[in-house]
Amino acid sequence: MRFELKPSSRIPPSPGPVVLVVMDGVGIGRGDDGDAVALARTPVLDFLTGSSAYRHFRAHGTAVGLPTDEDMGNSEVGHNAMGAGRIFDQGARLVNRALETGEIFRTPVWKNIEARGKKGGALHLIGLLSDGNVHSHEAHLHALLRGADRSGLNDVFVHILLDGRDVPETSAPTYVDRLEKVLAEINAKGNRHYRIASGGGRMTTTMDRYENDWGMVERGWKAQVHGEGRPFASAREAIETLRAENPGIIDQYLPTFVIAENGKPVGKIKNGDSVVLFNFRGDRAIEACRAFDEGPEFSKFDRGRVPELFFAGMTLYDGEYQIPKNYLVPPPAIDRTMSEYLAAMGVPQFVVSETQKFGHMTYFWNGNRGGMFDPKTETYLEVPSDRVPFDQRPWMKAAEISDAVLDALRGNKHRFLRLNFANGDMVGHTGRLLPTVVAMETLDLALGRVLSGVRAAGATLVVTADHGNAEDMVERDKHGAPLRKEDGSLRGKTSHTTNPVGLWIHRPQGAQIQLRRDLPDAGLANLASTLLEILGFAPPEDYLPSLIE
With 382 labelled, which of 107, 154, 291, 355 sits at a CA distance of 20 to 30 A? Predict the structure, then answer.
């Protein structure tokens, strides 16, 4: 049997269920004034640290399949690694290789784009403009532009989405200036018309996820396809004007805009054109793909005129539903995930998260696979997220998630339960320190409730995180000292980090376990083997080793 797991005799299995808590975006920080985790009152986490098996491990860079150890972790690759038990090359690394070898320009998808260009069709590139390397990288965009030039494409338009989340919160002009330089170099050759055509912040335009706010996608569609939006002469003028009108606004929330000349948009998408969404991460790309790929059955908003076009993504964002239909770089092939093994062995599993991280605990955890492996033994529960800025509701849905876990434990039907508290990541992304402290205190309260259910059920509690964020809420100088604004306040940071995360294993009943100290480079991919051993199974031979002594 391909998915058979053998019993393990290394440690006594958990007498009750195993409950995994993923504290999204909660790393191990410096413990200073910029560390919302350290500033928060967290008696439950403090108790677990003192009474449980505990260690740090890696959640960024090469430990999760990213190109270098300077690359911050993110929820997609973190959940991939946790669920897969092995390290797979991830989006940025796959795209880097395809661009470095030139393979991306030899694909049938690119050849189709070339053919349409020779017939007069323009190429439109849509995506996040930054070097955050979480959803995209500006180097990929620059390489595509130069590749389009080599392919003889005369007309190329870029529809930029401004970051301020995975990079400093007001850094957009830096990336715009670098892009404009690349465009100017290509245009200087003659017979080329390469322009920025529209833009907007990533939290206002195009990049919604999990169908939380289709209005974001609609605003992007109207600007990109119909040229509808406030007109400006350049992207830099748009950013500077919108900032002046909205003091304190950060890049991710800038309104949608279009670039116009003589009162007309410079780069609407028209019949015969090609469109490439150059983000490599899937969660905030899927809805835009649907808007471009789906036919008359699409009903999420009124698209108006739908041009005849060829659409492709940078990679395959959803393998189960084949979104998008065309893509430039094949995704990592992740097979034999931990949950697939457990489903094959008939182990009942329960999964709960709020909307913002539901896909991470299901789709990404399962190896970029939608749906369940076995609906008879798996139960998935999505708690709808609030549709307000997260710093206004820093408690998010932690209470409802812990309610669901307590109900599931009382039902005594499931052997493995996994849940995600999104507070640390989603509130941390706002860059606001005090709400993030509240988010951490809320998370700790919810964790205490889960712990009470674990005790009552004779279960084992495993707590970890998928990457860092809330533990470092300020921008720092090269020595690590917090940077301050002119008024003396701290300069907020909205991005993930390269900090390690914690691993806590707590057994209220039965023999306590010890964690290995001889694997200093261990990371999230070691978690699957660790969980399988607690459940009583020997991990597959090609999984990274368990962290249990």
Answer: 291
